[in-house]
Design a protein that fits this description.
The chain is α+β, with helices and mostly antiparallel strands and about 220 residues long. The protein has two domains: about 140 residues, PvuII Endonuclease, Chain A; about 45 residues, no CATH class. The chain is built from seven helices and seven strands. The strands form two sheets. It has a four-stranded mixed β-sheet. The chain has a three-stranded antiparallel β-sheet with strand order 2-6-5. A hairpin with a 4-residue loop joins β5 and β6. α4 runs antiparallel to α5 and α5 packs across α6. The longest helix is centred in the first third of the chain and has 17 residues. The radius of gyration is 19 Å and the shape is elongated.
Length: about 220
Amino acid sequence: MKPLLTLDLLLQEAVKFSDIESIYDEPSLFGVTDGKAVGTYLEQKFRIYLALLYEYQLGNSASGIDFPELNIDMKVTSIRQPQSSCPFKSARQKIFGLGYGLLIFVYEKTDDHLRKTGRLDMKHTIFVNKNYTADYQMTRGIIDILANDGNAEDLIAYMMDRNLRVDEIEASNIAEEILINPPEQGYLTISNALQWRLQYSRIIQKAGEVSGILKVR
């Protein structure tokens, strides 16, 4: 009987996996420049690696995240342009966070032209607590407004100025919620699109410095 996967075990295995992957030469990655293809390769490989060791629930389209029992999604991104897409559920995610934590693998890919293999040197492995997954500038502005005795009208005006994807009624509802339950400072950069575009440069910079953003490796 395999043990159940916990958060602590997930992070421990992420370190081991990153160490292994950083010295592994993979023929199927040679010449591959598509970040999505590299991400799919690494995500599938890590899931298989974990499945050999632990019992855990696989993510599906309903849950939308890789480890639903742990409420964590896995992201793989290149150090050259550390970003990835993310399903849009609600504009509130930009203020209150995505609603789940992130395990982020940041790689630098190199090709060995003599051996015709590709290697993913894992530069960073980072865990972001769900409480810190909101947009940096959006939450910073809201926190500043609250610190200066801002009211609901100030918050609504700010959200509209920032082109948050809400109408005035929803903005009013969010403003009232903010006054009761102020958001934490987020550290992602979340760009508006049909899907959220998450950018991780600040996460990489702050890993190990901010509570809730752990530099796992």
